[in-house]
UniProtKB/TrEMBL annotation:
It comes from Chryseobacterium luteum. InterPro entries: 23S_rRNA-intervening_sequence (IPR012657), 23S_rRNA_IVS_sf (IPR036583). This is Intervening sequence, 23S rRNA. Gene3D superfamilies: 23S rRNA-intervening sequence. It holds the Pfam family 23S_rRNA_IVP.
Amino acid sequence: MSYRNLEIYKTAFELFLRTHKATFLLPKYELFELGSQLRRSSDSVITNIVEGYGRSCYKNEYIRFLIYSHASNDETINHLEKIMALYPDISLEFETLRNEYNVLGGKINNYKKWAKENWNEKKI
């Protein structure tokens, strides 16, 4: 098994691609401010899943990186909400992403709970 088989990874990767593209709807002066923060936090959701999986032989390390991924997901939601408030004329795309990141956050949290209860060298 690979991290690429995890539903949370697949969803986070697809959302990252869409989020990255959506940031280019922002005004030019925002591309390197809030747009950059959004791209980095969105990327961090995926990266922490991958890095944690690479450390999955150590339960506490694996869980810690899932926690980081969940925190980055929350950060991404916060950036999306700021954009929605600041730029209501383009908020529809960002609102859709926010709603999907909310769902992803629940899935990461559920997977984290599952991993805590079912972890061993053979299952994960």
